[in-house]
Amino acid sequence: MSGIETMGSEATGPRMRVTLTVNGADHDIQLDPRTTLLDALREHLGLTGTKVGCNHGTCGACTVHIDGRRQLSCLMLAAAAAGSAITTIEGLAGADGAPHPMQAAFVAHDALQCGYCTPGQIMSAVACVAEGHAGSDDEIREYMSGNLCRCAAYPNIVAAVREVAGSTMAEAA
Amino acid sequence: MRPFLYSRATSLEQAMSEAAQSHAAIMAGGTTLVDLMRGDLTGAEHVIDIGHLPGLAKVELDGPVLRFGALARMADVAELPFLKQNYPALVESLQLAASQQIRNAATLGGNLLQRTRCVYFRDGVSDCNKRVPGSGCTALDGEDREMALFGASDRCVATYPGDWGTALAAFDTSIEISSAAGTKTVKFADFHVAYGDDPARESILQPGEIVTAILVQATPAGRHSTYVKVRDRQSYAYAVTSAAVALELDGDRVTAARVSLGGVASKPWRAPAAEAALVGQVLNQAVALEAGRAAFADAKALRHNGFKIDLGARTVARAAMVAKGKH
């Protein structure tokens, strides 16, 4: 069992020790098995870039990458993420600290208003392009539909994703 | 959430043995179970994570049978070229379900076992025979727009929410179930239990049993198949109505048809009357709509969901015409 150790029950209920690999670094943490990956990232590791929205699987604000795939950290137990490579918004920037092209595109296209959904939008958008699901505006809208934006910055989000998808396609050509 | 123990299964045998204990819950992708536990809608005290077990995620053509490993992820299966070409209804049912984040985690087996989205079940406080047997059904006097036209009763009127299950009902499908006693297969039509019959019970799955594969009989009707889903918004929503149609055609004439309905029933719902209305006919818009009307001839509407009878008939009609146009 990779990086998981169940510990004796205490008055507060069962505890366990897990190793989470986040943005390339291993973290040993002790937690209640009920802890979601979202709560572990924010409350145990201080990585508050990943946002709590609905905490229910309907808004996408908590989107992270698990072994390169976008998933919802609010619907995943932290223990289930042990052994996987977890990437959060804090891990997107290059080694030199330069913003990821998708982050730069969101700034350039003003693809946000209040910004609360933005980390989830960007994590989802990076995966959307990598999956090859950003071939048209309609396809971007469909494959970004799991990320809600209360401020309705959708046209600018689509434009940002389209720009990054276009430059990725140009590189591949 | 109630406290629970988490363990990660290292073999199917271990998982089956642990799952036979009381208050155990099997978790695969976790997208539905974590949400249910957060709402205190399971009695789970021990979560057994089978999501990392090897060998259960393969999708393969095994002679005349399409075999879907229960741990195959929805997003991966939706991308399989062979399936896109030969069974568009199955692929479309996956593409139109949930969001890509959820499809990346959720498994084919777990998808079948998702529980109803009925608000009175999910809210944790309303009277609900599904949650607290014998307490009553708040939906009967409440907002019943989302509720079922088929397979309901005065004990429960909730709808089965799945798209994948609805599409599977349009094929000769069976479910492979494994337990310490061995492996068995049951017909898909017998796998789910209509909520109206026994609200607290949603499938025939017993403690210690795990869905290990979904088996679909290969058929030429797969090529002429589609899944049409009508939603309150364009994407990322449950079906208001949906229909899967699979056809065998001789020119424009239908020689065999399978029709199933989603969003309107308490389990994946086959519509034999619609199938009978299609077979032998030269398929055109009028025939398709007649088949749709036939599908809903026995529908029992509540106060606010009667619109689904017309909408559902038109959904079937559109699916029939789209299926005809597939190559």
UniProtKB/TrEMBL annotation, chain A:
Domain 2Fe-2S ferredoxin-type span(s) in chain numbering: 16-92
Which superkingdom heads the taxonomic lineage of this protein's source? Bacteria
InterPro entries under this entry? Answer: 2Fe-2S-bd, 2Fe-2S-bd_dom_sf, 2Fe-2S_ferredoxin-like_sf, 2Fe-2S_ferredoxin-type, 2Fe2S_fd_BS, Aldehyde_Oxdr_Iron-Sulfur, Beta-grasp_dom_sf
Matching entries from PROSITE patterns are given as: 2FE2S_FER_1, 2FE2S_FER_2
Keyword set, alphabetical order:
2Fe-2S, Iron, Iron-sulfur, Metal-binding, Oxidoreductase
Q: Which Pfam families does the UniProt record give?
A: Fer2 (PF00111), Fer2_2 (PF01799)
Q: Name one GO molecular function term.
A: oxidoreductase activity, acting on the aldehyde or oxo group of donors
Provide the protein name: Xanthine dehydrogenase YagT iron-sulfur-binding subunit
The organism of origin for this protein: Acidiphilium rubrum
TrEMBL record, chain B:
Question: What GO molecular-function term can you cite, just one?
Answer: oxidoreductase activity
Residue ranges of every copy of the FAD-binding PCMH-type domain listed in the record: 1-221
Key word Flavoprotein present: yes
Q: Which UniProt keywords apply?
A: FAD, Flavoprotein
Q: Name one Pfam family in it.
A: CO_deh_flav_C
This protein's source sits in the domain of life called Bacteria
Which SUPFAM superfamilies does the entry mention? CO dehydrogenase flavoprotein C-terminal domain-like (SSF55447), FAD-binding/transporter-associated domain-like (SSF56176)
Q: Matching SMART domains, A to Z?
A: CO_deh_flav_C (SM01092)
Q: Which InterPro entries match?
A: CO_DH_flav_C, CO_DH_flav_C_dom_sf, Diverse_Substr_Oxidored, FAD-bd_PCMH, FAD-bd_PCMH-like_sf, FAD-bd_PCMH_sub1, FAD-bd_PCMH_sub2, Mopterin_DH_FAD-bd
Q: Which PROSITE patterns match?
A: FAD_PCMH (PS51387)
The record's annotation in PANTHER family points to: XANTHINE DEHYDROGENASE FAD-BINDING SUBUNIT XDHB-RELATED, XANTHINE DEHYDROGENASE SUBUNIT C-RELATED
Q: What is this protein called?
A: Xanthine dehydrogenase YagS FAD-binding subunit
Q: Which organism is it from?
A: Acidiphilium rubrum
- Organism taxonomic ancestry: Bacteria, Pseudomonadati, Pseudomonadota, Alphaproteobacteria, Acetobacterales
